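Private note to self, pasted from the team thread so I don't lose it. Backbone tokens:
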């Protein structure tokens, strides 16, 4: 029996959405998340960095891969990055890398951009004598072992000109590159 002055117990409860509405809400939520969160698998990238003249391996070179997103309006922006150092044989390996970011109305560019830097050597891809130059400029092919030859720089002036502009990405993503670039600035007398 219900109280005539008030609502019955069932009428005072909040109504649950129907199964159909729940499915619709779930699909809308999934579409929004898919629209904002994007992921792409890059790599692997493998290879060797050697001295252009001697062919000797270059140990301790920073290899930084930066992955950008692109909007439908052809505007690129940073998405993610990964960094490694060459080993005693001059070899580097960046395994399959899942780049993930939250950029609305964007997609991943099909390739990553590489920066290779070691104090005393011409940077890749910035130095004209670094070989070979992969296209688009500053990229590395996936699933292919590459050998990149860096020229040894002979003068302080060459080394000053070779200093790189650090990419506009989070510093935590390029700790080795920052350390080596700082080391080279000290080597050429630009900072103490």
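Design output:
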């Amino acid at each position: 029996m219900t109280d005539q002055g008030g609502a019955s117990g069932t009428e005072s409860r909040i109504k649950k959405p129907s199964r159909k509405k729940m499915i619709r809400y779930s699909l809308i939520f999934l579409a929004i998340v898919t629209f904002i969160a994007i992921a792409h698998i890059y790599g692997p990238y493998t290879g060797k960095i050697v001295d252009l003249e001697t062919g000797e391996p270059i140990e301790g070179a920073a290899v930084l891969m930066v992955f950008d997103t692109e909007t439908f309006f052809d505007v690129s922006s940073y998405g993610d990055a990964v960094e490694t150092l060459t080993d005693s044989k001059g070899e580097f390996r960046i395994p399959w890398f899942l780049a993930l970011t939250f950029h609305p109305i964007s997609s991943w560019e099909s390739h990553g951009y590489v920066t290779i830097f070691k104090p005393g050597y011409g940077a890749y891809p910035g130095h004209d004598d670094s070989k070979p130059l992969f296209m688009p400029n500053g990229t590395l092919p996936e699933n292919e072992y590459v050998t990149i030859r860096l020229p040894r720089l002979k003068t302080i002036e060459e080394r000053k000109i070779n200093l790189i502009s650090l990419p506009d990405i989070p510093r935590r993503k390029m700790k080795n590159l920052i350390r080596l670039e700082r080391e080279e600035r000290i080597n050429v007398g630009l900072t103490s």
